[in-house]
Design goal:
two-stranded antiparallel ribbon; 360 residues; globular; 13 helices; single chain; mainly alpha
Length: 360
């Protein structure tokens, strides 16, 4: 019965998201909630930025329709709405990054104080016992939450990219719960299933294919920050405490692509004396895109790599590999991703660039 509830949650979210996006399209045109081409944005025409709201509505209404799924989620609902509304305002008026960070910090407070989802341990990463946060738990939680939100926000640079990468993470998370203890983590599983359905519904409008150009929309900061926040809510929930599904380092494996891109981006910008929030075209997806790969090729490559690395992380967990070894392997892998992508781009640069660039 629990598996049927998960399936119904995913289907319900899928249908509601599609309906919501169609219904919101006239509103976006009326209030100017549109993404205009120019600068580092290479898409054609003005595109409605309504995917994030559609994902939120699909997820929340799907949970609301399931009597098992929404009771413990009221605090999540508050934070998710705050994140999404702020993202919408940012999509429309371009907020200062300090305001965005303040709102994101505010959104994690119910998570920390009301639900008690806290980063209390980073695991035994050095082999000398668990690294506990103790009195620094709020700071550790804030760093993890804000990092995850902005990692997915930075990843949202091509049609279908953030959605596809997050789908791979969510599917592997759901698999982990099904293999572990579904009844104990049913609420988290229902949220995952609903978000999977919502993101799949959004991809109907945003996948890098020719058939959806007439109904195309973007998720915007509203969607990318919502996905990042929801994922980190789940990752903290499932990696802490005595009933955790996996170790914290395994959750890093599951989010290898956005985490690697975040670390690479922040390190590169700081080395140049720039703000970490300074936009540029040197993200991992830009490296592949500028090598001549089509948008669909970039999305498939990064989502596939992310999925495979998630499987590696789960395999290390299931084989009881030490967390110190898992961390070392992940660091080597993350470095290999950056070096490999850059080397691949250099070898392809002499080839004619693919003209089908639908990045945003």
């Amino acid at each position: 019965m629990d598996e049927i509830s998960l399936l119904l949650a995913a289907i319900g979210a899928f249908v509601v998201t599609i309906g919501s996006i169609f219904a919101l399209r006239p509103l976006a045109l009326a209030i100017g909630l549109l993404d205009h081409p120019g600068g580092h944005k290479t898409h054609s025409g003005d595109i409605p930025i309504i995917g994030g709201v559609g994902i939120l509505l699909g997820t929340v209404l799907s949970l609301r329709a399931n009597p098992q799924g929404f009771g413990p989620m009221s605090h999540y609902l508050f934070s998710a709405c705050l994140i999404t509304i702020t993202g919408m305002i940012d999509d429309r008026f371009k907020l200062d990054h300090k305001i965005r960070l303040l709102v994101q910090f505010t959104a994690l407070l119910p998570m920390f104080f009301a639900v008690h989802l806290q980063v209390t341990s980073f695991g035994d990463l050095l082999g000398f016992g668990p690294i506990l946060t103790n009195h620094w738990a709020i700071l550790a939680t804030a760093i993890v939450v804000l990092g995850a939100i902005n990692a997915f926000n930075m990843l949202d640079g091509l049609d279908g990219l953030a959605a596809s990468v997050s789908l791979s993470t969510l599917c592997l998370l759901l698999f982990s719960i099904l293999q572990n203890n579904l009844p104990r983590h049913l609420t988290a599983a229902l949220l995952i299933a609903a978000l999977i359905g919502s993101i799949a519904g959004f991809l109907v409008f945003n996948a890098p294919i020719k058939g959806n150009r007439a109904i195309r929309c973007f998720m915007g900061d509203a969607g990318s920050t919502l996905i990042g926040f929801t994922l980190v809510w789940l990752l903290v929930n499932l990696s802490q405490g005595t009933h955790k599904v996996a170790n914290p380092i395994t959750m890093v494996w599951l989010t290898s692509i956005p985490v690697t891109d975040l670390v690479w981006t922040v390190t590169r910008r700081l080395a140049k004396g720039q703000s970490p929030f300074h936009p540029d075209r040197s993200h991992l997806h830009h490296i592949l895109l500028d090598s001549g790969l089509s948008v669909a090729g970039v999305v498939f490559t990064m989502a596939s790599v992310g999925f495979l690395l998630g499987i590696v992380g789960l395999s290390l967990e299931f084989c009881h590999t030490s967390e110190r070894t898992s961390l070392l392997l992940w660091m080597l892998t993350a470095a290999g991703i950056v070096i490999g992508f850059r080397s691949f781009a250099r070898h392809r640069r002499a080839q004619p660039a693919n003209a089908d660039h639908t990045g945003h």
